[in-house]
Specification:
The complex is a heterodimer of chains A (568) and B (207).
Chain A (H helix, E strand, L loop, with lengths): L1 H17 L1 H4 L70 H10 L43 E2 L2 H7 L18 E2 L1 H4 L19 H6 L9 H4 L20 H4 L22 H6 L11 H4 L4 E2 L24 H4 L24 E2 L5 E2 L5 H9 L19 H4 L6 E2 L43 E2 L23 H4 L4 H6 L3 H13 L4 H4 L4 E2 L20 E2 L8 E6 L2 E8 L2 E8 L1
Chain B lengths: L1 H19 L69 H10 L36 E2 L2 H7 L16 H5 L4 E2 L27 H4 L3
Antiparallel strand pairs in B: 1-2
Classes of the chains: A alpha+beta (568), B mainly alpha (207).
Chain lengths: 568, 207
């Protein structure tokens, strides 16, 4: 008998002695959901000792399961919405109603069905105090709830797990996703009562299966914050890009940017929070402080992931060129898209939309080709063409080799390793200036976001610096000093002796075959008509290609008539 | 034999429990109907029990003397409920023979046509879907499946033995798992143990 009693006592006391460290951490008792007088949080009852009572009652519950002891707020909530959401929620249902009966801030925490008067809270607290736990009645800034999450939704979305495969901690309630899919109100093993840790976005990724994500730098980078400026990870306890995962940019509750639950409403802020020199190696914010930029600050709410490939209303956001779910450091050679522009949409050489670009120029063509809000050229030319897709077409009489190798088999000025069969990127010319600047056309001190100085004004003294953009690829010595037509007779005469800019005769993009021809528009010849005029004698304004290193011009420039001028 | 077992259990309880729970019994409790107008016998036990000629339609019914409910009940259900909950059985059905509100309180001792019915919070009705589920098997398997319940066969009830030993009846959760109809504890709602700090709930619920 004595033995039995000792056993019983051991059964009672051993767990109390040994287990608290692990068990209590897994019990509601030691969480802020213990609203009783014994609760650990600041929001708690004055004297009520029962814990379950704030939510549950064994009898006369309403709503019925799970034996609920609170009133349905019955509120018409503002619901989550987004152009990319397939499963749009209705008004909250199921367990979510019960969560909201405290967390929408409309019903006193102590207002339970099983008590005739509300349970008193210390500090005079009635409804949930303001703060991150009080979601309010506007749920449009919170992850959607109370929607049917089925295989059809997963298929329609294309980037969601088939819920039939969910066997882990995330559970649906009657086929619907509710608050309790992510939160277990009774256990706070992880932060915020999550059912599994959100470190490395493990929780998010159970459902969200983003294309490209597993290869993304945002998934794997161990970069950390240097402590300057804003904390980029203000709503997580994690300290590296990889650990924060989705939450580098997204905030599942009370998101500033409601659509797609972005950390910040201004799109660029979600990127520049890290790409400002404080986390990422490249300081893009610095580039965007320059005079000539892709001005992502200028637009708010105009970018939409669902927008047409051909941009219909002029705008630019970081996400127009970069897919943050796919971006990675993976070099490529022109014209192939490198890792920084992985997984973005574009427009191909024929003007057709492509869902994922293969060639980088296809990305540029979204705005700089067939867009109705196409940016204009800074130079008035004899042949006007702002559609770069037409300018770089491989059937043109001449073009810079963006889509493929150029047509001219003799380009003596090319600096090795460039050859006549080389292909270059748009961003070989259009990129941030300054050595060591991050690649890509983010911002430059030079107009047109050019990587180097490229003077276009008439009467510019020739120098390496003034035309450095050209001279980076085209050897200055060959251009101005080589003997014969190419060097001294043509180029030196004009750009050194006459201070005429390269841009006066050459159209650096190319001349569309729809407008130009292989007699008048080889060698990127398309005159700047603010500098070059028609020859008053012949009435003509044209260059005529008469063979290798040979040609003649009909024009008037710097007061000199070419009627024609022969170069041979 | 069954009756003997029951009596033995009653006697053991009568001998053992009072030592710990001094002075508490049905007399004067909310189940003491000796002073009510509808119980003209003046007796306490008679509303539910009789020493002879008891109703044995309900299995294990302890010398039953009250008309038994024939209601069909709506059991509790929930998306997160792992137990299989059927119609109330065993002693729970006897409780509901007053608490479902379909049988008159004064229909005992073979009397029918009574007119006094239960009211207020104690009236469960036949819709049990807003009440804690009863009459389901609560075993180690259920605890494993649910992940929010303690194993009744190894978890102490706080009453001297395991949950299985002290609170279940033939391995089932019943009304009597939480309530002692005879008020041995003297606690509000005739609870078998205090629910301060939700101790009664957390005996089974691993939350």
């Amino acid at each position: 008998m004595l033995q039995i009693k000792i056993e019983n006592l051991l059964q009672v006391f051993l767990p109390i002695v040994l287990l608290p460290a692990c068990l209590f951490a897994q019990s509601i008792v030691n969480t802020v959901h213990n609203l009783s007088v014994s609760g650990p949080g600041s929001v708690k009852a004055v004297s009520e000792s029962e814990i379950c009572i704030f939510c549950h009652t064994p009898h006369n519950s309403n709503p019925r399961p799970p034996l609920w002891n609170r009133n349905d707020p019955g509120f018409n909530y503002i619901l989550y919405n987004s152009s990319t959401a397939q499963g749009l929620p209705g008004q909250p249902t199921g367990a979510s109603v019960l969560c909201l009966s405290c967390h929408d801030g409309t019903i006193a925490l102590g207002n339970v069905l099983s008590r005739s008067s509300p349970i008193s809270f210390s500090g005079g607290v009635t409804t949930m105090p303001p703060g991150k736990s009080n979601l309010g009645t506007d749920l449009s800034d919170d992850h959607p709830i109370s929607f049917v999450y089925n295989s059809a939704l997963a298929a329609a979305d294309g980037q969601l797990a088939d819920p039939a495969t969910l066997s882990g901690p995330v559970k649906l309630e009657n086929g619907e996703l509710q608050c309790i899919a992510c939160h277990d109100p009774h256990r706070n093993i992880f932060n915020d009562f999550l059912v599994v840790s959100h470190r490395y976005s493990n929780l998010c990724l159970i459902c969200h299966q983003r294309t490209h994500w597993n290869l993304s730098t945002h998934q794997s980078s161990s970069a950390s914050w240097n402590g300057n400026g804003n904390d980029p990870w203000f709503h997580t306890p994690f300290n590296t890009v990889a650990e924060n995962g989705c939450e580098n940019c997204h905030n599942p509750h009370k998101a500033d940017g409601h659509f797609r639950l972005m950390n910040y409403l201004p799109e660029e802020n979600n990127c520049l929070d890290c790409h400002n020199g404080n986390v990422a190696g490249s300081d893009i914010q610095l580039q965007l402080s320059k005079s000539f930029i892709h001005n992502v600050y200028n637009y708010l709410g105009m970018h939409d992931p669902e927008e047409a490939n051909v941009v219909q209303t002029l705008h630019v956001e970081c996400e127009d060129c970069h897919n943050p779910h796919a971006v990675r450091n993976a070099p490529a050679s022109a014209p192939n898209a490198n890792g920084f522009v992985q997984g973005v949409k574009g427009v191909d050489t024929n003007g057709n939309p492509v869902s994922t670009i293969q060639y980088t120029y296809e990305l540029c063509y979204r705005c700089h080709a067939d867009s109705p809000t196409l940016p204009a050229s800074p130079t008035s030319r004899q042949i006007e063409q702002n559609n770069t897709r037409l300018e770089f077409d491989l059937n043109n009489p001449s073009f810079h080799p963006i889509e493929g190798p150029g047509v001219n088999p003799n380009v003596p000025s090319l600096i090795s390793p460039l050859t006549e069969s080389s292909v270059v990127y748009c961003s070989d010319c259009h990129a941030s200036d300054g050595s060591g600047s991050p690649a890509g056309p983010h911002g430059s001190i030079y107009p047109q976001i050019l990587k180097f100085r490229y003077e276009t004004a008439d009467n510019t003294p020739e120098s390496y610096q003034n035309y450095r953009l050209c001279y980076e690829c085209h050897d200055r010595t060959v251009i101005i000093n080589s003997t014969g037509n190419f060097g001294q007779r043509v180029h030196r005469k004009h750009i050194v002796d006459q201070d005429t800019p390269c841009n006066a005769c050459h159209d650096p993009h190319g001349i569309s075959s729809l407008q130009g021809n292989s007699t008048n528009n080889t060698h990127l010849i398309n005159f700047d008509i603010s500098i070059v005029f028609a020859d008053p004698v012949t009435g003509r304004l044209e260059f005529e290609d008469t063979g290798s290193y040979r040609g003649r011009c009909y024009l008037r420039c710097h007061g000199v008539n070419h009627s024609p001028e022969f170069y041979q | 034999m069954k009756r003997f077992s029951f009596l033995f259990a009653v006697l053991i309880s009568a001998l053992v429990l009072p030592a710990a729970l001094i002075g508490q019994n049905i007399s004067g409790s909310s189940h003491d109907f000796s002073g009510t107008g509808w119980n003209t016998t003046g007796e306490i036990c008679i509303v539910c029990h009789t020493p002879h000629n008891a109703d044995i339609t309900v299995s294990e019914a302890p010398l039953w003397n009250h008309e038994v409910t024939v209601s069909t009940f709506t059991p509790y259900s929930s998306a997160t409920l792992d137990a299989t909950v059927g119609q109330p059985s065993a002693s729970s059905k006897l409780c509901l023979s007053c608490h479902d509100g379909t049988v008159a309180l004064d229909n005992f001792g073979g009397q029918t046509g009574g007119t006094i019915f239960i009211t207020g919070d104690a009236l469960m009705g036949t819709g049990l879907d807003n009440d804690h589920p009863i009459s389901f098997t609560y075993d180690a398997t259920l605890a494993t499946n649910d992940q929010g319940l303690h194993d009744p066969t190894t978890t102490n009830s706080g009453l001297g033995g395991t949950i299985h030993e002290d609170m279940l009846f033939a391995g089932q959760m019943e009304c009597a798992s939480c309530h002692d109809v005879h008020n041995s504890t003297g606690l509000p709602k005739l609870l078998i143990k205090s629910n301060a700090t939700s101790a009664l709930c957390l005996t089974c619920h691993d939350k």
